Amino acid sequence: MKTLELFNFDKLYFGKGLRFVSGVDEAGRGPLAGPVVAAAVILSDDTIIEEVNDSKKLTPKKREILFDKIKLQALSYGVGIVDSVIIDKINILQATFLAMKHALDKLAIKPEIVLVDGNHKIPGLEIKQEAIVSGDAKSQSIACASILAKVTRDRMMDEYAKQYPQYLFEKHKGYGTKAHIEAIKKFGACPIHRKTFAPLNSIS
Fold first, then answer.
1. Within 10 Å of residue 6's Cβ, how many Cβ atoms?
2. How far apart are CA 151 and CA 143, in angstroms?
3. pLDDT of residue 202
4. What's the fold here for domain 2-161?
5. pLDDT band for position 3 (50/70/90)?
6. Distance of alpha carbon 195 from alpha carbon 204, whole angstroms
């Protein structure tokens, strides 16, 4: 069972005597529009949330259901959001780190260790951390963070779709689909587009 595999990964850290293990993940590094969103989640050492998996492997409907379950069962969670203006100022990697720091700052419990999805540690973080490549497919706490980040961002993009209906954000969530790029060519960039991203930096 995948959920048990994810739980057992985090259990390795609890087995070292740690009580508060936080998984951290982001959504929205690649799109041409909208924010980058990160989430941090701390679960108890005996919590198994059924059907949790890497958010990319779940249907939108399943993510929505799990979003509420995770918030209910987590010891603590936080969400950090960095908008397109800041992304353009400091670049997407630094914006991702900033969103992760914001998410961690919102935790009601200070984690003893942070498990970060990917191959980069968060610079300047004064908490012990480990970068876990493909962490959202290995760790339950990271997988939970990936779901919170993804659902939060998708909901934001659905709201932006109402403000800027010509871009069809509700369909592609800001990613560089053919329809999205055609809309940018036709209408130019809107305020939530990342102006430093190709092809926006040449066609808008």
1. 26
2. 12
3. 85
4. Nucleotidyltransferase; domain 5 (3.30.420)
5. confident
6. 8
Report the C-alpha gap between 100 and 40 in whole angstroms.
Answer: 7
pLDDT at 204 over 70: no
N- to C-terminal Cα distance for the chain?
47
pLDDT band (50, 70, 90) for residue 122? very high
HEC profile for the chain?
A: CHHHHHHHHHHHHHCCCCCCEEEEEEECCCCCECCEEEEEEECCCCCCCCCCCCHHHCCHHHHHHHHHHHHHHCCEEEEEEECHHHHHHHCHHHHHHHHHHHHHHCCCCCCCEEEEECCCCCCCCCCCEEEECCHHHCCHHHHHHHHHHHHHHHHHHHHHHHHCHHHCHHHHCCCCCHHHHHHHHHHCCCCCECCCCCCHHHHC
Region 158-181 average pLDDT: 97
Q: What is the mean pLDDT of residues 88-113?
A: 98
The pLDDT > 90 percentage for the chain reads 93
Work out the number of other CB atoms within 10 angstroms of the CB of residue 177.
Answer: 15
pTM of the model: 0.96
Greatest CA span in the chain, whole angstroms? Answer: 58
Q: Which residues is 36 bridged to in the sheet?
A: 82
